TrEMBL record:
<keyword id="KW-0378">Hydrolase</keyword>
<feature type="active site" description="Proton donor">
    <location>
        <position position="11"/>
    </location>
</feature>
<dbReference type="Pfam" id="PF06888">
    <property type="entry name" value="Put_Phosphatase"/>
</dbReference>
<feature type="binding site">
    <location>
        <position position="11"/>
    </location>
    <ligand>
        <name>Mg(2+)</name>
    </ligand>
</feature>
<dbReference type="GO" id="GO:0016791">
    <property type="term" value="F:phosphatase activity"/>
</dbReference>
<dbReference type="GO" id="GO:0046872">
    <property type="term" value="F:metal ion binding"/>
</dbReference>
<feature type="binding site">
    <location>
        <position position="178"/>
    </location>
    <ligand>
        <name>Mg(2+)</name>
    </ligand>
</feature>
<feature type="binding site">
    <location>
        <position position="9"/>
    </location>
    <ligand>
        <name>Mg(2+)</name>
    </ligand>
</feature>
<protein>
    <submittedName>
        <fullName>Psi14B protein</fullName>
    </submittedName>
</protein>
<keyword id="KW-0460">Magnesium</keyword>
<dbReference type="InterPro" id="IPR016965">
    <property type="entry name" value="Pase_PHOSPHO-typ"/>
</dbReference>
<dbReference type="InterPro" id="IPR036412">
    <property type="entry name" value="HAD-like_sf"/>
</dbReference>
<dbReference type="InterPro" id="IPR023214">
    <property type="entry name" value="HAD_sf"/>
</dbReference>
<dbReference type="InterPro" id="IPR006384">
    <property type="entry name" value="HAD_hydro_PyrdxlP_Pase-like"/>
</dbReference>
<keyword id="KW-0479">Metal-binding</keyword>
<feature type="active site" description="Nucleophile">
    <location>
        <position position="9"/>
    </location>
</feature>
<feature type="binding site">
    <location>
        <position position="20"/>
    </location>
    <ligand>
        <name>substrate</name>
    </ligand>
</feature>
Length: 271
């Protein structure tokens, strides 16, 4: 249904793990990660680790191979393909980075399903090492949201998407996420929208504790199978509701025209 925007978090929502931790663990940088974690922001830490891995001789191809092995529930890809086939506008809002996300989505054959990926920039420099930058330069332009990490406020991204939806004629949002950073965007959703937090994860706990602040309808899920079932059920319900509304509007318009009858022909103007 063209009027529905489905927004996915990435780590522990589309994939079953945190992509940053997965790469760090698989490439043997865990000790350095634990050593540096208390000393710098997360994005700076990941950039520093990518530099260290490059120094150790790890290549971009090594990182890509690790990303292609990332665990994912077998029903996630069919769920995304089905939502896309039904005409939904799919987007990613994630605190991972664009290199990790695009590598995984391309490997899974679903990159083309997403119209937009909102995440931290990442690129391969001229020396062949991966550089990771924050979505927001929090040193010079802080986003000002005390619910979100300094590098990204997902709530502000959802507000921008909402503004663009008005121009594009889209009406409803379904938001899926799991982490603390997914609580702020849940508060930005409106009546008629839906939020799908992963059960027993931080976003679900925060929504449960602050239920009166969330205007959207809440539908929790536990794994990819349940995600697929609930997501497609919601899309189907919205589609039926919108079709019924359109049918009523068309019927009203037809009845209105019939009650007024045909427009009278104008009288000839005398010369």
């Amino acid at each position: 249904m063209a009027g529905i925007v489905v927004i996915f978090d990435f780590d522990k929502t589309i994939i079953d793990v945190d992509s940053d931790n997965w790469v760090v663990d698989e490439l043997g940088a865990n000790d350095l990660f634990n050593q540096l974690l208390p000393t710098m922001p997360w994005n700076s830490l990941m950039d520093r680790l990518m530099k260290e891995l490059h120094t150790q001789g790890k290549t971009i191809e090594d990182i890509e191979e690790v990303l292609k092995r990332v665990p994912i529930h077998p029903r996630i890809v069919p769920a995304i393909k089905s939502a896309f086939a039904l005409g939904c506008d799919l987007r990613v809002v994630s605190d991972a980075n664009v290199f990790f996300i695009e590598t995984i989505l391309k490997h899974l054959g679903i990159r083309n399903c997403f119209s937009e990926i909102n995440t931290n920039p990442g690129y391969v420099d001229e020396e062949g090492r991966l550089k990771i930058l924050p979505y927001v330069d929090f040193q010079t332009s802080p986003h000002g949201c005390n619910l979100c990490p300094p590098n990204m406020c997902k709530g502000l991204i959802v507000e921008r998407i909402q503004a663009s939806m008005v121009k594009e004629g889209k009406k409803r949002i379904i938001y899926l996420g799991d982490g603390i950073g997914d609580f702020c965007p849940s508060l930005k959703l409106r009546e008629g929208d839906f939020v799908m937090p992963r059960k027993d994860f931080p976003a679900w706990n925060l929504i449960k504790e602050n239920r009166t602040l969330v205007k959207a309808e809440v539908h929790e899920w536990t794994d990819g199978e349940e995600l697929e079932h609930i997501l497609l059920q919601l899309i189907n319900a919205i589609t039926i509701e919108e079709s019924q509304l359109l049918s009523v509007e068309c019927k009203f318009h037809t009845m209105s025209k019939a009650s007024h009858g045909p427009f009278p022909r104008p009288l000839p103007v005398p010369y």
